[in-house]
């Protein structure tokens, strides 16, 4: 197909350019025929696995963090908010993405065209801004711990989580406003089809603005802020390890070790987000700045599919990354997954401090 196609934004569903190897063919008389495309079924099956694994992992994470009293820590409240955003993405946007490999028609109407990109960008915003807030929380816990002790952690975290959702929803409103159904015509058969696009398809300025703004707001700027936080965290941890004597400060050493472990955990989450979402951003930027040069090669199609699957994978990996990095979380995770009641445990006078630093 040689006409100008709509292109994938980070915040929109798959367009016909990525399903063009799929489910429609034309005979010599121009008659349209639908058929089952086996690779499309395989791709949709991968999406199904991602959805199921993500639902199990994130629901169990929510149960663990909210139902187990010892797991209601400051970082885990943030992780619960992150899990809600991931669940929202998995139950709404992932099935829509998968459907583009099974049918060439947009099945969800004009309302769906506006709602699905809005939900996806909201979820992406919740993810990256929550990771930024988690990094800020680790900075305060390690570099300025006295400030945390004087604050009300639960109320403060709930307000910050609500603010993150509000900001994410606000930034996603333009997606709902400008996304709409557009009609395209194939150059070789004059057949028309309707698909969802995130902006008017007249001119080249809209895709460039959209892709660049998405890359800066939802990737570059948050990751830069997180990098600054972790620079000061690393510097503080190095200084702390040098200043504390080997004997007589066992409690302080344990506290620093716990905070260092949690800082590493948050950093792993940030790394997973950066790795999983970078290919989608790069492909969208490439398409936006080569809007008149549609790449219809099989290699570009495979790369696009991989990038989309990798982006959705980010919504299911966090619970299992935390499972591997935290013994206490993995124990309670197993109990909640198997619906076993957690055993009561005794709390020491230092439980409030642990509540600030442990996962």
Automatic annotation (TrEMBL):
One Gene Ontology molecular-function label: neuropeptide receptor activity
SUPFAM superfamilies recorded: Family A G protein-coupled receptor-like
Domain spans labelled G-protein coupled receptors family 1 profile: 57-322
Position of the signal peptide: none
Keyword presence, Disulfide bond: yes
Gene Ontology cellular component list: plasma membrane
Record keywords: Cell membrane, Disulfide bond, G-protein coupled receptor, Glycoprotein, Lipoprotein, Membrane, Palmitate, Phosphoprotein, Receptor, Transducer, Transmembrane, Transmembrane helix
TM annotation in the entry: 35-56, 77-98, 118-136, 157-178, 213-232, 266-286, 306-325
KW Cell wall biogenesis/degradation (keyword) present: no
Compartments where located: Cell membrane
Membrane disposition: Multi-pass membrane protein
PROSITE patterns for this protein: G_PROTEIN_RECEP_F1_1, G_PROTEIN_RECEP_F1_2
Pfam families referenced in this protein's UniProt entry, alphabetically: 7tm_1
Primary residence: membrane
Homology family: Belongs to the G-protein coupled receptor 1 family.
Name under which the protein is recorded: Gastrin-releasing peptide receptor
Protein species of origin: Sphaeramia orbicularis
